[in-house]
Amino acid sequence: MDGRPIGFLDSGVGGLSLLAATRRLLPHERYIALADGRYFPYGESDPDGICERVERLSAFLLDGDVKLIVAACNTASVHALAHLRASFPVIPFVGVVPVVKTLARRTRTGTIALLSTPATAESPYLAELLREFAPGKRVLNIPCPGLAEAVEAGEVGAERTSSLLAPILEHVSAAGADVLGLGCTHYFFLRPAIKRILGSGVQVFDASRPVARRVRQVLLQRDALGSCPSGPDEFYTTGDAARFAVVAQTLLRRPIESVAAVDLD
């Protein structure tokens, strides 16, 4: 057994969706979440800049004696996961990637849709995933500028967010897609609205539960599961701590004891 915490890093609150899923699966673990609010969003950043930022975030989490780090951001994972594993070879990293394989397996119409940030949508990594796992499928690879920002601001149910979603989902429906993947961890919190708009004819998938299962698998392989929490979860941000706490509590629907601001520049 290993009582050390599990670390989560993201540009903002999106990674909390993965933390929540992992916490449900592994309730006897302690968690440390770090959001890079000062440099949010990563979705339109250059790959080199993303690598530099997540390396700093990982170093901070390692100072907290974590036993595993989840790169809880699609954009960070597709651009920087290999870099992180090379930079910190002693710690296991679990990334999150678009659920292309699931979409290709579950579609009946042959048309799949994927929503992601511009950086993920345009990444060579995603292009390779589509070539490998979705050959012969019609793919709607839809970049969604502004959508992660709306969630980060806590505007999940706001009119502005609905106005961003409406034309995107209209395109998905008109194209005949019967499966939709959420390629940004922020979008998890929009699932109810997305499902309500699309209706039962379109299945919606995200990576939260697969990532949680992968975390459990890695810890089992390393004989590193925890037996009971050794303390409360910890939350940090390089941005506005008070604002992060308010949005996090709203999205997670549970109290957040405290959020600490850190300077990693």
Give the topology, please.
Elements: E1 6-10, H1 16-25, E2 31-35, H2 47-63, E3 68-71, H3 74-87, E4 93-95, H4 100-106, E5 111-116, H5 118-121, H6 124-133, E6 138-143, H7 147-152, H8 159-174, E7 179-182, H9 191-198, E8 203-205, H10 208-221, E9 234-237, H11 241-252, E10 259-261
Parallel strand pairs: 1-2, 1-3, 2-9, 3-4, 5-6, 5-7, 7-8, 9-10
Helix pairs in contact: 1-10, 2-3, 8-9
Folded structure, characterized:
The chain has 265 residues and is α/β, with parallel strands linked by helices. It folds into 2 domains: 6-96 and 209-261, 3-Layer(aba) Sandwich (Rossmann fold), CATH 3.40.50; 100-206, Rossmann fold, CATH 3.40.50. It is 45% helix and 16% strand. The protein has 11 helices and 10 strands. It has helices at residues 16-25, 47-63, 74-87, 100-106, 118-121, 124-133, 147-152, 159-174, 191-198, 208-221, 241-252; strands at 6-10, 31-35, 68-71, 93-95, 111-116, 138-143, 179-182, 203-205, 234-237, 259-261. The strands form 2 sheets. The chain has a 6-stranded parallel sheet, with helices on both faces. The longest helix is centred in the first third of the chain and has 17 residues, at 47-63. The radius of gyration is 18 Å and the shape is globular. 46% of the residues are buried.
Question: Quick summary of this structure?
Answer:
The protein is α/β, with parallel strands linked by helices and 265 residues long.
Mean pLDDT: 94
The run of helices and strands is EHEHEHEHEHHEHHEHEHEHE
Number of strands: 10
Task: Count up the domains.
Answer: 2
Which regions contain 5 or more consecutive residues with pLDDT less than 50?
none
Q: What percent of the residues sit in helical stretches (DSSP H or I)? A: 40-55%
Largest sheet, order of strands side by side? 4-3-1-2-9-10
Number of helices: 11
